[in-house]
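To assess whether ligand presence alters the predicted conformation, the chain was also submitted together with NAP. Input:
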Amino acid sequence: MPSLNIIVTGCSTGIGYSIAVHLASLGHTVFATMRRADTRKEGRTLRQIANDRNFNLYTISHDVDSEQSTSNCLGQCLHLSKNQIDVLINNAGVGGKVAPVEESEYNDFERIMKTNYLSPVRMIKMLLPHFRENHRGCIINVTSIAAQYWTANQASYCASKAALEAFSTSLSQEVRRFGIQVSTLQPGVVVTPILLKEQVKGVKGSPYSRHVRLSKKFYTAMMSTMRTRPIVVSKVVEQILHDFLEEKQRMHYVAGPDAIQLDKTLREKGMEWLAHDGGRPYVNNDQAHVDWFYKHFHLDVSASFKLKGPTNMISKM
Ligand SMILES: NC(=O)c1ccc[n+]([C@@H]2O[C@H](COP(=O)([O-])OP(=O)(O)OC[C@H]3O[C@@H](n4cnc5c(N)ncnc54)[C@H](OP(=O)(O)O)[C@@H]3O)[C@@H](O)[C@H]2O)c1
């Protein structure tokens, strides 16, 4: 694969870190952005890896929520790449708290929308003239399977990722004729620090508490059974770059076994089903919930409930 100049945001940990190292290991030049890159240990670690392995990897300080910081960051990337950025990967993001709408802070909706949706929009707007003048560019927006699995108790996060999906599809139609290809990448549950960053204690006596418990258990089940690592997402990014160079980049990619299953079910059943049946919580019967989940999504969430498995799987043992 020819070497590309690639900006990746949010590279301090998790998926962004993995994408940056993986793409640099393939011979690409990577501009790995993160907050306080010069002073924090994650920045030093990446620079050390680049040094030890002779990678073309630069760390750049960048707070995606700040217009000034984004402008400075892009200025540095363009300067270092001699005005030839080929790929932008908007990865930086925040997870939402697992909580019902009624018990969520309005400020959280604003904060998540800002980082997960408005910041990638700004980044893209700033780079589009460059891509258009070069008649070439690849944009990858890391959304989430939550962009289509609009699940209960995650409204703020699902909405922010769905907004970025809609934006990306509109944008693709505007810019493809200028040689700019746009994709969204929807990972399922991936083991990264994000899952620990926004823990909230449930509201005492909440009428939603049993349903929230089921939602939280979905994540712990996926983490313990699938154990999807960030490299799985990085390999899908590698595939997207391959498709970009062949000029057949698709709009939509998923990463991880749970994302593949959820994507399939949701395409078959549609949003009407999700809104009604998809939210059916067997709040008083864990086995019924596990069975229901397996029946529709072919995903086994029993590990979180200390159950042996979905009933129809146990009967085959
Ligand atoms: N892990 C999953 O299960 C999963 C599933 C689907 C989609 N995703 C998406 O994948 C992306 C990466 O998440 P991850 O799982 O790798 O989580 P992570 O390890 O928490 O990484 C998130 C990254 O985003 C950065 N970030 C957040 N706000 C920022 C800001 N204002 N400016 C600059 N950087 C900022 C974080 O930087 P700091 O260290 O400075 O906070 C960190 O580098 C996110 O967009 C997430 O929504 C994750």
